[in-house]
DNA sequence: GTCTATAGCCAGATAGAC
DNA sequence: GTCTATCTGGCTATAGAC
């Protein structure tokens, strides 16, 4: 039996806070607004999370823990390079269509407070390029792909997949696309991006 | 005779506001902080710009007017496709190394308030993909580049060039690069990115 | 144009009853 | 655990002297 109405107050708060913080950021969010969204009394926010800052950190960590596994597919799974590129481009776009504000939220707050990264690095599963680098260097020496630095390829993979979500409002303006048309463009990118990358690195 | 000390109060305010807003966003910025940075009395901010909102809009428009010409090099100059890609990748990165917070600032505030784009579109020189689309379709039919949608190529060009700046703190963590090392990676991208794109679209 | 002083508001946080 | 009421501080904005 699934009791959706039985989620705890603590959880309701976290979900509401997620929504509000992702849209408005730390400084733009209001505790009252989060309470309203969670349909809960404002003082309960403080009862469960002590302060706005701590509530925010809980939200941020939860968001980051959603994103990290996606990145780790590229960096730490045992698929071939091509499969990684194909799967990541497909899966990440699907994932993002469900959580469009997530990358923007994370990048925004990290830019505001870069020391946050230092804390994150110590956490388990923080994505690290080491294994990917070994894989790329091996593929190059075996003549599977052209010469390219692992860091540059990795940045390219992230950029091509993530940027269209972060820059959505601006790109929509440039290409004169409605929300619906832009969504179609994003859908096409599920295969388009992998194709674009592979065409560039194959020999 | 250049009198750098002679810039008006109005200008001093705008420069300071630019700095603070780009770092902290609209809601995170404090009028007092801007006044301190401009070394000017806080009430002068209101004297010259009436309200925080209007000061912010002045800053935002100034920032956008710095960025738009860069984009228009890709969309509306009469260079060849290859030259556009090569020059943009080179120039944009140079430009961004001087204004690293600019794209993040613009995208952040547009995501918070997407209606802002509607206002911007009516302004002169708002980048539009129309001419670029014609150029790409011509190049394809002439057999100069492979089949690709202009929108997708355009998004890719922007993504590869802009994303590394927006996501700097995160990528630095993933690839374990210091500020200095990351700057070297970005410098290399001036040629690396154009190369990556051209390899993908050439026949 | 530039300053000081302060109005007026609103947000985060807490006290304390139930 | 949940509520109401309230404190406290900080912020935008303005009034008014110079």
Second rung of CATH, namely the architecture of the largest domain in chain A? Orthogonal Bundle
Largest sheet, strands/sense/barrel of chain A: none
| N-to-C SSE string of chain A, H for helix and E for strand | HHHHHHHHHHH
Gyration radius over CA of chain A: 20 Å
Total beta strands of chain A: 0
Which CATH first-tier class of the largest domain in chain A would you pick?
Mainly Alpha
Strand content of chain A: under 5%
Q: Say what the CATH topology of the largest domain in chain A is.
A: Tetracycline Repressor, domain 2
- Tally of separate domains of chain A: 2
Counting helices, strands and paired strands, the structural category of chain A is mainly alpha
Q: Quote the distance from N terminus to C terminus of chain A.
A: 55 Å
Largest interface: A-B, 61 and 61 residues
Mean pLDDT across all amino acids of chain A? 95
> What proportion of the residues of chain A is helical, as a percent range?
over 70%
Instruction: Classify the oligomer.
Output: homodimer
């Amino acid at each position: 039996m699934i009791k959706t109405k039985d989620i705890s107050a603590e959880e309701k708060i976290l979900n509401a806070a997620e929504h509000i913080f992702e849209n408005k950021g730390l400084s733009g969010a209001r505790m009252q607004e989060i309470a309203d969204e969670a349909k809960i009394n404002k003082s309960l926010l403080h009862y469960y999370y002590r302060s706005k800052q701590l509530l925010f950190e809980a939200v941020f960590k939860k968001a980051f823990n959603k994103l990290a596994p996606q990145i780790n597919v590229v960096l730490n799974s045992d698929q071939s390079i091509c499969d990684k590129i194909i799967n990541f481009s497909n899966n990440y776009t699907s994932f993002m269509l469900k959580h469009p504000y997530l990358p923007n939220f994370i990048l925004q707050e990290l830019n505001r407070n870069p020391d946050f990264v230092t804390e994150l690095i110590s956490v388990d599963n923080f994505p690290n390029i080491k294994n990917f680098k070994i894989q790329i260097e091996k593929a190059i020496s075996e003549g599977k792909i052209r010469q390219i630095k692992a860091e540059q390829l990795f940045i390219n993979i992230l950029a091509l997949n993530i940027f269209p979500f972060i820059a959505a409002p601006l790109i929509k303006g440039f290409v004169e696309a409605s929300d619906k048309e832009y969504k179609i463009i994003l859908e096409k990118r599920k295969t388009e991006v992998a194709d674009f990358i592979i065409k560039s690195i194959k020999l």
